[in-house]
Amino acid sequence: MLKKEFKKQDVERLRNLIQGQSNNRTNQGVGYVKSSSEDHEEGDVWEENGRSWTIKDGIKENITKLDKFKKATVPLFCPNCKGIMDKQLDANYYKSYGECLDCRVKFETKLKVAGKWEDYLKTTFNDEIDLLIEEYKAFYHEQISESTEGYVTESGEVEQWLGSIDEGRAQESLDGVIEYLEGLKK
Cβ(44)–Cβ(31) under 8 Å? Predict the structure, then answer.
């Protein structure tokens, strides 16, 4: 004999679970839903009620000041092998490669066994040089476009400086540096 009777809602819930329809509702909810005229997609960033929001992996997330810190921290488990990242060098390898030391060692060993290690080193080295060239070009363009009308000192005074950057010599220097860096490629 049952001490408690099942409600209609409970029976419907069990029936839905058995039939594999766990998302079906068994009761009516009452509440307020804000009708938003804006539909946001993956990667969109918008402001709502004084907060910034975005959608990552299909989930609406609040953008906070700690987002950069979250990326800098090391997780407890390796994303590849799901092992605990407790070795001394795991943090360094995670920040560089996004995986633990053991996963990185396995990857590099597979490359060496397959005879692709030298090609991998050349590609990695050349990619680093290409990145350095792009960063140097960005620095060059930033310096060229910088205004020389005046500078504010630490005491708050505005100093007027005469002269400007000789763009011809700067371009020659840029070309020389890029030629040197291209010569370093393997």
Answer: no
pLDDT one-digit tens code per residue, 22-66: 788 777 777 776 666 677 888 888 888 888 888 887 788 888 888
Please give the Cα distance from 182 to 176 (Å, whole number).
10
pLDDT value of position 118: 95
So where are the chain's domains? Answer: 44-73, 74-115, 116-186
CA triple 169-147-171, angle to 5 deg: 20
Token pair, residue 88, equals: 């001394």
In order, the DSSP letters of 112-180 are: HHHT-HHHHHHHHHHHHHHHHHHHHHHHHHHHHHS--S-EE-TTSPEEP------HHHHHHHHHHHHHH
Cβ atoms of residues 106 and 140 within 8 Å: no
Q: What is the pTM of this model?
A: 0.53
β-strand partners of 152:
158
Please name which of 107, 111, 165, 122 lies closest in space to residue 140, comparing C-alpha atoms. Answer: 165
Strands 151-152 and 158-159: antiparallel
